[in-house]
């Protein structure tokens, strides 16, 4: 989950990494007051979560309270993807001699955490590395040793960037603290995208960006509580969940076995009761590839109950314009196809609909498929076994939806 | 022959008294696998389907040879369980546990590397060499497992456990069959990536081609493309990349923890481009995989 910049800076504060004075404003009036308190030139930053880890929306410079108020009004009216900024961060403008960039993250190839530094600030570091590889320096480090036993790795990184003297020692401290923060708070990325150096040689984090792994939510309860982030706040870049998505979450909350999430609503007319992590991705692609327009994404798996399958089928069919569904999964190991069949048919019947009309295809091969086939035959529902590929099954289903 | 396991492969199950572990221990035994012990702290002295349960891994490794361990303990305990197995000298570690934090996964992998052990997973189902050994929970009930995984010449590596079975089943139905199928895990950092395991398939005479199932997120496919360019492999590789619809939905995660597109390298489009540029066949449809494998094997004169 993404943190807003003011939250990321609260994490920096825990480690004593300096950043500009400032505060969060939800209205132009608040921004004006903040700017007046800070005095002089300020920077106003829109707080919005975007898909990119580094390109984080819009920043305005303002000379005094009135300009800050005006900038805030403009920024709060912005539309960034599906989102509008929730607030602005108003900070003093700090004069710096130069800016660097610093990031700690995981390297999935080396399977180690890595610290990355560059003298090209305020850019996506991946792009900088592609365009000018010699201006991006990397150093892997270890998760098995405390930072105090591998500060030398931070030093080597800073040295490779060409820093010496007191600059070297000062920046080494910043790197080591940032790495500590990443490991402590389950961050996937901690980045100071603009690390300024002031005239007196001190480093200051101007532009900061952090992302915590989703699984971290449960372990980092104290931090989230400190930030006032409720457990239910999704922080999705798509914006707030739709009522249908909320209902899917409620179904999972009632009975966590056989999770149907992630459930995501789409614009199409073909309901998908589809299963398992990789299977759902593959099925969604196959439906789209054959011209189908999915109304939703779901990933039912881990042996759902009859009730769960029933509720999912009803939910999907409750969407306006959806009168047909496809029930599909990869070859399953633990999920009982007979329970899924029973649940889906029950759901359809409860809506007063005809299973053989509504269910375009049933393809859930596995140990219990023979029992499922009996139920499906009774209601005249079209089904297939494992000899029919997911692509072929998707094609058949789409053809029926398009009539 | 296959990779990773063999006829006399002997393994233990850590967390053997858990619900899922009980199921797959029974099904592994039904399949013919040699499970020579289980570990659950505090439950030493019991038996699970005839398998003795111990409190510590060393109680087993001190009396007999142990080649592998399947770890299914809750995520909070997974690093400790893995360290215990690795320090006791076990060299092949499968971690089924889901939701292990990234830092812990890396700790386990680092520790394994220092001790010459290999980690498959986390968040995977395990390994099957049909008719030889089933190491983990892959494939479900033993009879179903035998049906979906028939012996043959194709190595399979998949980031999704379910799709490991789906693809293996399709290859079995096509008559090609499986040398070894490996569910490598759906987490952002896993112990063994495609290119880590490629040299093993390369050295396995039974394997004539490799199929990989891939998802959005992570650099593993770019790494395989690079491996493929750097090594003049005798094995044709056929890849399938799922989640192509996610190209238009950056920042959103679907399914496994590893599936999120943040960076350029994460996107299905970029993965497909990189792999095709390296001579890897990328199937547009999941159903095309067996046909493509046959074509590629014939083209290599196999």
Helix content of chain A: 25-40%
Number of domains of chain A: 3
Helical content class of chain B: 25-40%
Work out the helix count of chain A: 15
- What is the CATH architecture descriptor of the largest domain in chain A? 3-Layer(aba) Sandwich
Could you characterize what this model shows?
The complex is a heterodimer of chains A (403) and B (302). Helices cover 39% and strands 21% of the residues of chain A. Chain A is α+β, with helices and mostly antiparallel strands and 403 residues long. Chain A folds into three domains: 1-20 and 95-213, ATP-grasp fold, B domain (D-amino Acid Aminotransferase, Chain A, domain 1), CATH 3.30.470; 21-93, 2-Layer Sandwich (Dna Ligase, domain 1); 243-402, Rossmann fold (3-Layer(aba) Sandwich). In chain A, the strands form four sheets. A five-stranded antiparallel beta sheet of chain A has the order 7-6-5-8-9. In chain A, strands 1-4-2-3 form a four-stranded antiparallel beta sheet, covered by helices on one side. Chain A has a three-stranded parallel beta sheet with strand order 11-13-14, with helices on both faces. In chain A, a hairpin with a 4-residue loop joins strand 5 and strand 6 (112-118). In chain A, helix 12 runs parallel beside helix 14 (369-378). The longest helix of chain A is centred in the middle third of the chain and has 20 residues, at 165-184. Chain B has helices at residues 19-31, 58-61, 78-87, 102-114, 142-148, 161-173, 194-202, 220-230, 268-277, 289-299, and strands at 10-14, 34-39, 47-48, 51-54, 68-71, 92-95, 118-120, 126-129, 133-136, 151-158, 178-183, 209-214, 237-241, 281-283. In chain B, helix 8 links the parallel strand 12 (209-214) and strand 13 (237-241). In chain B, helix 8 packs parallel to helix 9. Chain B has a single domain, classed as Succinyl-CoA synthetase domains (Rossmann fold, 3-Layer(aba) Sandwich), CATH 3.40.50. With 302 residues, chain B is α/β, with parallel strands linked by helices. The two termini of chain B are 18 Å apart. At the A-B interface, helix 4, helix 10 and helix 15 of A face helix 4, helix 5 and helix 6 of B.
